[in-house]
Amino acid sequence: MAFDSNIEDFDALGNDHIGTSENTPMRSDAFKLNNEEKIDIIKDDVRHIMETLGLDLTDDSLKGTPNRVAKMFVNEIFGGLNPGKKPSASTFDNKYKYGEMLVEKNITVYSTCEHHLLPIVGRAHIAYISNGTVVGLSKMNRIVDYFAKRPQVQERLTIQVVRELQEVLGTKDVACVIDAKHLCVNSRGIRDIESSTVTSEFGGKFQDMETRREFLDYIKLDTKF
Ligand SMILES: [Zn+2]
Questions:
Q1: Residues assigned a catalytic role
Q2: CA distance 117 to 139
Q3: Is the entire prediction scored with pTM above 0.70?
Q4: Which residues fall inside 5 Å of ion ligand 1, going by CB?
Q5: C-alpha 1 – ligand 1 centre gap (Å)
Q6: What is the CA radius of gyration of the chain?
Q7: How far is the CA of 149 from the centre of ligand 1 (A)?
């Protein structure tokens, strides 16, 4: 997709929540600064935003906010930008020769919309068919959490989770469905409180309609937020 370098076009793109790439767009110098240096710079940036909005940062309640937000950005909600935080790829041999579908459902998703920097809250459901290798169940939660802790587009998050598990498990037979609310849609803009967004990625055998149906029957989407 090509866009004119017109700020209004990019504004519309973000409001429609259209992502442009499967990989998180990163700068080549993304890790030149260490976390402490990043926190130091972001702290000043947050203070600048707050002061520009007219807030009095000498007030005791606001004084600590720039530092708190900077630490939260770097260490927590955007901590998954750092490849060093990627969960280790420990797998096990499938001793029981369990060749059926394994489904891990209702994995909590806390992410951040990269167009508005507001929360995305939802559930991920993952399935795979082992070709001899299995992962611990908590590994799937950790993979979701790692990719969720970035500025995200829900479609990209869904694809990144599937690609990572395909690599770890050595099989294409992996699927993921995410059902999530975007606070930028629910609390501002169109202010649609009820709506949620469902995205899916079906790899390998999950492109077969019967296998896909089996997975979707297991999860019977009825997400409680
Ligand atoms: Zn948004």
A1: 113-116, 154, 182, 184
A2: 26
A3: yes
A4: 113, 115-116, 184
A5: 20
A6: 20
A7: 15
> How remote is the CA of residue 181 from the centroid of ligand 1, in Å?
10
Q: Who's near 35: CB < 8 A, 6+ residues apart? A: 74, 75
The count of other CB atoms within 10 Å of the CB of residue 131 is 14
Question: Which H or E element spans position 127?
Answer: strand 119-129
136-176, pLDDT tens digit by residue?
889 999 999 999 999 999 999 999 999 999 999 999 999 99
Quickly state the pLDDT bin for 225 (edges 50, 70, 90): low
Ligand 1 center to 2 CA (angstroms): 21
CA 112 to chain centre: 7
Are 202 and 175 in contact by the 8 Å Cβ rule? The answer is yes
pLDDT digits (tens, 9 = 90+) for 41-94: 999 999 999 999 999 999 999 999 999 999 999 999 999 999 999 998 778 887
| Angstrom distance (rounded) from CA 70 to CA 28 | 22
Residues 6+ apart with CB under 8 A from 179: 122, 123, 125, 196, 197, 198, 221, 223
Average pLDDT of every residue of the chain: 90
DSSP assigned state of 95: T
Number of H helices, E strands in the chain: 8, 7
